[in-house]
Amino acid sequence: MTAPLAQHQIEIQRNLDAWQHKPLLQKIYAQFYTRIIALIDTRAKGQIVEIGSGIGNLKAHLPQALATDLFPNPWLDLVCDGYELPFKNESISHLILFDVFHHLRAPNAFLREARRVLTKDGRVILFEPFMSWSSFPIYGLFHHEPVAWNSPVDFSKTLPRPRDYYAAQGNATRLFFRRDKTDWPDDWKIFHAEAFASFSYLLSGGFSKPSFFPARCLPALQSCDAALSRLPGLFGARCLVGLTPR
User: What is the number of structural domains in the chain?
Assistant: First the structure.
């Protein structure tokens, strides 16, 4: 999927409005952030940076994180591009990308830059859609971004300007969970790769659709998600991936 880069800012404004009027979504995302924070190495020295912070929700759960994005907004700490990070070599302990990795047209170019700024034991933490037998049709039919399951992935080490808006929801699943298909990234260690069911999220309608259940049913749905997560290939809908340089 390609579009002018300004499409990103349009989506941010739409998501902000949905977030403010949808407390159910806030509760669901709070559990997502808890999963991310569990992968933070609290002993590591260096700044924690979120790339593509969007409407800046992670900062409420991880105040020390530096919130960044492509366009200036009042809740951000810094405007920057993930392909050209404005940080010194080996100065960052963690780079967190929440629903951002699938917007990277050239993920290898980002990881090359990430490697430069990360400390020796630094971490890249990715939270992404996961494609399973049950979630694939839902993402494909009801989300405006393409899954792009069979589209080629650009493994270039650089991505020249000008850059456009890109989306391929299936990329994280393809690259980190279908290791029989590719040996990428060979210079990174995958220290965590977890896929889990999240029907509570899918049925919430996300940022763009109405919810299909009342907030009082959330605990029951999350209990179902926990049980179904034992079979991620069938029921997985979200994934959490942790990388560290080899």
Answer: 1
